[in-house]
Design goal:
Helices cover 71% and strands 2% of the residues. The chain is mainly α. Helix 4 (67-81) runs parallel beside helix 11. The radius of gyration is 21 Å and the shape is globular.
Length: 406
């Protein structure tokens, strides 16, 4: 079989084509539009299935250089950091606490559900951890850390199972969030504000998404260059911070340092809108939109669908159970605890995204919904913050279950 490895430039080219293919398909398929399925999910998954059939037929195996994927992932999360103003933290404090509580409960219940089904099917209870919060909330990163640990204590196939579940969860997370939020929005007749209203309502522009078709961005070349330079500065200095932390054996997301630097700059900016030290928020919002779409497209393009081929029996049953559970949990619990409003509906979609897949999927779910029903800044601030917090909670819960079940 021919092995084709695409460099980062070709990978980026295909990612852009996949995104616009997703736009084209979504405009023509009512189901995708009605249920707010992100364009990047549509295009990226389409390419992943094409890649699968080429591999299955023995024609070619396609792999990608992930340099550009990492770059845009870091850029996106860096842009999110600019929303972490102290003022916003104070405004969202109560909601942040409530969201943290419901996510902590979600993590525990995901593991209880997987372990219960695994034991009922006569399998090793520890294998249930490989289909619970470890691969779902934790993603491929947690699967790569805890999978080998479980194999060391005798759980055969733990890593492969966890990685498969992470991949399946990434797909599910991008598919169920839109329908859950769409149903809530329709039932309670909820709407957000137009993007122009959102920016006008707050001079600080505390939002991280924008749609250039709706937002009147009065930008110039120097303003765009300034935004890009600030992002690169935060990404570069942030990478050094992340590397220093890792030297002490502490595992952190590679973009954590960049978020911290962006947040510091955000809170040190001048209040004078004409000052050089004023953050060009609208331009950064556009970079966030670009980075998210390309990053998510590339992530889904790189999926090896053939790894899901063995997702049968207990794993398939648990995967479907988890998808059903988080849809119900987000609809009936998250929405009500967060206030039964438009913000709560967006966060419900986000919980489906990172509860099954990853934070970028959560952000893409919300972004897709805001394009159709109007924007709201607060969810785009709360979700990334709580997303970074739940990693520590998730690791603690996994270790606790491992020690109780071994």
């Amino acid at each position: 079989m021919l092995h084709l490895h695409l460099n980062f430039m070709l990978a980026g080219t295909i990612a852009a084509l996949c995104y616009y293919f997703g736009v084209w398909v979504k405009d023509r398929v009512r189901f995708l539009k009605d249920f707010c399925i992100p364009e990047a999910v549509v295009g990226g998954l389409t390419f992943a299935f094409i890649k699968f059939f080429l591999f299955h037929l023995g024609i070619v195996e396609i792999t990608f250089d992930k340099v550009l994927q990492f770059f845009f992932m870091t850029m996106f999360f860096t842009s999110v950091g600019f929303g972490a103003s102290i003022k916003n933290m104070r405004i969202g404090g109560n909601a942040l606490i409530r969201l943290g509580i419901v996510c902590g409960i979600l993590i525990v219940l995901q593991n209880v559900l997987s372990i219960a089904i695994t034991k009922a099917l006569g399998q090793n209870a520890l294998l249930g951890l490989c289909t619970g919060s470890m691969p779902l909330v934790g993603g491929h990163g947690s699967a790569g850390v805890f999978g080998p640990m479980l194999e060391e204590i005798g759980v055969r196939g733990a890593l492969a199972t966890a990685m498969t579940m992470s991949t399946f969860g990434l797909i599910m997370g991008g598919l169920v969030g839109g329908p859950v939020a769409g149903r809530l929005i329709a039932k309670y007749k909820l709407r957000g504000r137009s993007i122009k209203e959102e920016f006008t309502a707050d001079d600080n522009c505390d939002t991280t998404v924008a749609d250039e078709n709706e937002l009147e961005v009065h930008t110039t070349g120097p303003r765009f260059m300034k935004a890009f330079s600030i992002l690169l500065f935060c990404m570069g200095i942030g990478s050094v911070i992340s590397d220093i932390v890792k030297m002490y054996g502490i595992m952190v997301p590679p973009y954590l340092g960049s978020i911290i630097i962006a947040a510091i700059i955000r809170n040190l900016e001048s209040s004078d809108v004409k000052s050089f030290f004023r953050i060009p928020a609208q331009e950064i919002a556009l970079f966030a939109d670009l980075a998210l779409n390309i990053f998510l497209s590339m992530t889904l393009m790189a999926l090896n669908i053939w790894e899901l081929k063995g997702l049968l029996g207990p794993i398939a049953i648990i995967a479907l159970a988890q998808m059903t559970f988080i849809s119900i949990y987000s609809y009936f619990v998250v929405f009500r605890v967060l206030g039964k409003n438009y913000n709560a509906a967006l966060i419900s979609a986000a919980v489906c995204g990172f509860g099954l897949g990853a934070i970028p999927t959560a952000m893409a779910n919300m972004q897709s919904i805001t394009k159709q029903f109007g924007v709201a800044a607060m969810p785009f601030l709360l979700v990334p913050i709580i997303g970074s917090m739940v990693d520590g909670i998730n690791a603690s819960v996994i270790v606790l279950f491992m020690n109780c079940l071994k």
